[in-house]
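Page 42, continued from yesterday. The earlier attempt failed because a stray header line got pasted into the input along with the sequence. Redoing it now with the clean sequence only.
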Amino acid sequence: MRLLLVSDQPSPYYYDHYQPGRLDEFDLILAGGDLKREYLEFLATLAHCPVVYVRGNHDDGLLEHPPGGCICAEDRIVECCGIRILGLGGSFRYRPGENMYTEGEMKRRILKLTPALWSHRGFDILLTHAPARHINDMEGLCHQGFSCFVDLLDKYRPRYFVHGHVHMNYGANVPRRTTRGSTTIVNAYNHYAMNY
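This time it went through. Structure tokens are written below.
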């Protein structure tokens, strides 16, 4: 199965310089937040596969005007192509905003998912906007990750953890892929294609 991961910045390759058929190879597109509604709708229109997204810290407008043709995975487990995707968008709260959370608020979001986690017997992909604490995050409050994401990874051991928020151009030490136990962690900034 072929996946396209996108987050934070529209990819010129798949948008501005798009050529017909360029999205045909993908079976699933996962969007990690901070992408304009028009871009998500463009992907959903031209790709022949589901587009599953979570909101980023700059996506307050998507609450009232969600992207057409896309599947919002916020605070639930979505099953697409036989893959269980748990979605938790937003970032660490550093200013007022609809899609920003304290550590305690994010823990409560996860706690409310307990019945879904039990009934789905876990999940295969954790799709978030923010990274996990001390895994691909930064020390400043704006780009700090959530410790409760680490707990989710350790308890459920999903195959993949896909996040955005920490742009690859923030520095040479921002990794694209890392691992924690049996989980492969991927920063979806701009775009990243991979096999599942």
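Notes: DSSP finds five helices and 13 strands in the chain.
Reminder to self: strip header lines before submitting.
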